[in-house]
Amino acid sequence: MSGNGVISQGLTRLNKPFCNYSSWMRRRQYEEVPDEFELPYHNNHQSEILDSSGQPVMIKIDVPVPLRDEPRFPKEKWKTFYSFVILVVNFILATVSLSLVHERLPDREKYGPLPDIVLDNIQQIDWALDVSEILIMIGVNSCIILIIFHKHRFIVMRRVFLLMAMLYMLRSITMYVTVLPVPNTTYYCSPKSNSTTPLLIAKRVFQLLSGFGLSINGKHTFCGDYIYSGHTVMLVLAYLIISEYSPKRFYAIHWAAWLNALVGIIMVLLAHGHYTIDVLIAYYVTTRIFWTYHGLANNSMLLKQSSNNYLGREWWFPYFRYFEKNIRGPVPRQYECPISWPRRFFSKLPSRES
């Protein structure tokens, strides 16, 4: 027998077991799984095998419970209510601070406006403050409409309430620790009472709340709330909300909101309603808090407090984790009618494909 014949016979014998094994595996692939293996997924699977002595051996396999299909963006209305309560408390705190600051206001007959590089070089225009507050109302109402029609309106409301609460709380502190002279020489300030009884403070707080903190309605007659500018806070915050939660393709709306904020701030300075430093601090504080909050909210890895996460050292980080722990990712820019019956009506209309 030649060498090639011997080699071919050896290869045939060697391949025969592998061929039998392959055909056996193909048959097993199409066989049905026995009924005894159809166990519930959430139970602990148990099976028996025999050891070398013929005794049964129990093997316990722990199968993890499947994760619940939770919504990525839960409404959590009760958290939204909590955030609104926090906002109301801090807004009242700011009005109480102003009521106390008014008594510590420097005498206008002795102390004139502080030197300011901007105010010293522009003529005072009293009606410009009314224009600024009208622009504030336009920006605020635009944000309200946007939030109402946003699909995840409760999440957006919750964030806006918390941001405003933090800004008002910080403002109540800064205006109280440093009281500046009135920058406007013609703005009316109520006479001092030279006493701060609880009843007097309550009356002033009610007067300020009834006017929503605006002077255009004649309710804001108490002076001293300069560091930092509340007008600038509302103008900048309105622009940030519109740019963050409105569709990206609506460039005209974004530019209009930006222009509304810019003109409003310019009008505050033209009216000498605030010093320039008040406006600069307000812009810096508002943008830093807004961008830091949303930077944390849009990155789930930053929700963990660690030695390397320096953003987690913010004083408000524990509250942030409580309100944002169930939100998974950036909030999509989706919109819907807030009333249910129009949605049901339009869903019943025949589509183009029907």
TrEMBL record:
<dbReference type="GO" id="GO:0005789">
    <property type="term" value="C:endoplasmic reticulum membrane"/>
</dbReference>
<dbReference type="GO" id="GO:0000139">
    <property type="term" value="C:Golgi membrane"/>
</dbReference>
<dbReference type="GO" id="GO:0047493">
    <property type="term" value="F:ceramide cholinephosphotransferase activity"/>
</dbReference>
<keyword id="KW-0472">Membrane</keyword>
<feature type="transmembrane region" description="Helical">
    <location>
        <begin position="161"/>
        <end position="182"/>
    </location>
</feature>
<keyword id="KW-0812">Transmembrane</keyword>
<keyword id="KW-0808">Transferase</keyword>
<protein>
    <recommendedName>
        <fullName>Sphingomyelin synthase-like domain-containing protein</fullName>
    </recommendedName>
</protein>
<keyword id="KW-0746">Sphingolipid metabolism</keyword>
<feature type="transmembrane region" description="Helical">
    <location>
        <begin position="226"/>
        <end position="243"/>
    </location>
</feature>
<dbReference type="InterPro" id="IPR045221">
    <property type="entry name" value="Sphingomyelin_synth-like"/>
</dbReference>
<dbReference type="GO" id="GO:0005886">
    <property type="term" value="C:plasma membrane"/>
</dbReference>
<feature type="transmembrane region" description="Helical">
    <location>
        <begin position="255"/>
        <end position="275"/>
    </location>
</feature>
<feature type="domain" description="Sphingomyelin synthase-like">
    <location>
        <begin position="223"/>
        <end position="294"/>
    </location>
</feature>
<feature type="transmembrane region" description="Helical">
    <location>
        <begin position="81"/>
        <end position="101"/>
    </location>
</feature>
<keyword id="KW-0443">Lipid metabolism</keyword>
<dbReference type="GO" id="GO:0046513">
    <property type="term" value="P:ceramide biosynthetic process"/>
</dbReference>
<dbReference type="GO" id="GO:0006686">
    <property type="term" value="P:sphingomyelin biosynthetic process"/>
</dbReference>
<feature type="transmembrane region" description="Helical">
    <location>
        <begin position="127"/>
        <end position="149"/>
    </location>
</feature>
<dbReference type="InterPro" id="IPR025749">
    <property type="entry name" value="Sphingomyelin_synth-like_dom"/>
</dbReference>
<dbReference type="GO" id="GO:0033188">
    <property type="term" value="F:sphingomyelin synthase activity"/>
</dbReference>
<dbReference type="Pfam" id="PF14360">
    <property type="entry name" value="PAP2_C"/>
</dbReference>
<comment type="similarity">
    <text>Belongs to the sphingomyelin synthase family.</text>
</comment>
<keyword id="KW-1133">Transmembrane helix</keyword>
